[in-house]
């Protein structure tokens, strides 16, 4: 029998399948989230990659913003618990996690067992989130995947003083009109996000080692900017965006064990 963790985010759907022996059988990411066909697609894709049928799945644990909307789940867990469990599995030495997803930022401190000790979240605002970066990329007419490379070629980050998405958007437009180099604008955007995230890190308290989870961690330029702001190395696992789904799958896996 198999256990499945599904992370239904605001922006992307993620899933992981674990065997009875605790081996990760498959992982899948579909770049559309709750309220779309993303969750059903990612679930089907993860099963397909593991070479199993729905009837082979004993337990499904859901997490993420849209976790209550997926039919057929056995239980659900908070994103905080799942990211903590997922990162603790991927990078056991980590004690501080910075998770930046499509619509929120969470800073968590965990102990050696992967249990949450403290956390701080952003208010209900897109500033500093994946949505903020998605919007800025659109204004600059580039893909979010190109932001990292662009910022690493910058000479001097442009000053972006607003963290509010609406105001920052008009600041970016006026920089473009003023012929400021695209690379410098992107570096300025990263710096503004990094400053906002660093203030949350300070509020939560930092303990070594530090890791990032969530899709935004794939942006190396932003990670580098954040390292400068918090004066600490940040570890990023290649499965950073899957941390929540993996944590959920590990919770589901507990139900495969004899009582
Ligand atoms: P959620 O769980 O809220 O849906 P995720 O943790 O899946 O969010 O992260 C989604 C965000 O990750 C997107 O808003 C996007 O900005 C960012 N992202 C995804 N892939 C990449 C990439 N290759 N490079 C940079 N950013 C990325």
Verbal overview:
Helices cover 40% and strands 20% of the residues. It is globular, with a radius of gyration of 19 Å. The mean pLDDT is 96. The strands form 2 sheets. Strands 3-2-1-4-5 form a 5-stranded mixed β-sheet. It has a 5-stranded mixed β-sheet with strand order 8-7-6-9-10. It has helices spanning 38-50, 79-90, 130-140, 144-152, 165-177, 182-204, 220-230, 243-253; strands at 2-8, 13-19, 24-30, 57-63, 75-76, 96-100, 105-110, 116-121, 210-213, 234-235. It folds into 2 domains: 1-91 and 243-259, ATPase, nucleotide binding domain (Nucleotidyltransferase, domain 5, 2-Layer Sandwich), CATH 3.30.420; 92-236, Nucleotidyltransferase, domain 5 (2-Layer Sandwich). The protein contains 8 helices and 10 strands. A hairpin with a 4-residue loop joins β2 (13-19) and β3. The protein is α/β, with parallel strands linked by helices and 259 residues long. Residues 9-12, 33, 64, 101-103, 130-131, 133-134, 144-145, 214-216, 218-219, 241 line the site of adenosine-5'-diphosphate. Adenosine-5'-diphosphate (ADP) binds next to α3 and α4.
Question: What is the topological layout?
Answer:
Elements: E1 2-8, E2 13-19, E3 24-30, H1 38-50, E4 57-63, E5 75-76, H2 79-90, E6 96-100, E7 105-110, E8 116-121, H3 130-140, H4 144-152, H5 165-177, H6 182-204, E9 210-213, H7 220-230, E10 234-235, H8 243-253
Parallel strand pairs: 1-4, 4-5, 6-9, 9-10
Antiparallel strand pairs: 1-2, 2-3, 6-7, 7-8
Helix pairs in contact: 2-8, 3-5, 3-6, 4-6, 6-7
